[in-house]
Amino acid sequence: MVDTAELVKEGLNIKDSELDLREKELKDEDIVEIMKSGEIKGITALFLEFNEIGDDGLRAILECPAMKNLTVLNLFKNEVTDDSVKAMAKSKSMLNLSELILSDNKVSSEGAKAMAESNILGNLVSLWVGDGLGDEGAVAIATSKSLTRLTQLSLYRNNISDEGAIAIARSSNLSKLTELNLNWNFIETVGAIALAHSKSLTRLARLYLCSNGIGDAGHCDDQGARAVSTRCGRSDGCQGRGGPRGYSLRGRQRGTGSPQGEHDNGTSGRKSDLALRQRGNHPCRRPPNPRRTPRRLRAP
Q1: Residues 80/104, Cβ–Cβ less than 8 Å
Q2: End-to-end alpha-carbon separation of the chain, Å?
Q3: Structure confidence by residue, pLDDT tens digits, 162-196
Q4: Can you tell me the distance from the alpha carbon of 118 to that of 134, in angstroms, rounded to the nearest whole number?
Q5: Who's near 194: CB < 8 A, 6+ residues apart?
Q6: What 8-state DSSP symbol labels residue 174?
């Protein structure tokens, strides 16, 4: 049985108002107990990556009075579904949230729609979510009238095709984006060109399209590859074989189990403002490490 009191004691950083409980094999019932602790009052950042937390665990966080000041919530690689995401979108305890990671969970287009329509989540500047949004979910985020403060958006491995990419490229609501991660999707030439030539995403400094169908022999031509290479010149921190960092001339075919070529989630070798934890050897799924970089708590 997990000793939740001891975990809280070990993971609590009073100076930075952080609680780090990543990789503790935590389940919903453990989070329920942790949220009852009197030691977590005033926490502003909660790191829960690589656990087994589902909807009941997230609801416990939403219902905990001590979480009302939360600005950073990292649930990377857990078991959260649309049900609790919909509850989050309505929870006043999340009004101060500025950075949210829900990548590698079980969030679909329905969860994306709930976030996109939420007035509660309007302060988000960084959002990572997945991994079943599809084009419908991407369009919902692109057309959201609430998520207009986003500067960093990660929708990697979400089965997004040209339709979703074009919606993002044309989105005036996402005009503050400086970084966009669409790795491991099914974007081809048309979508890549739309992103590279976007008149809305004028602040975009880093665009990651690793392991899509761009410039892949027999899959599509290399016009998209050239367009992205032009947009992401080396002055923007691009590097690596075959094009900019986070971008590969090799992709994956729809329906295959794994991508080909280089993988990068766009975090290697750069300074980040995200207060996210880094873990694992798979670079396509690695959030940056807050111990190396400062946390941004407000929108620019």
Answers
A1: no
A2: 44
A3: 999 999 999 999 999 999 999 999 999 999 999 99
A4: 19
A5: 162, 165, 166, 169, 170
A6: T
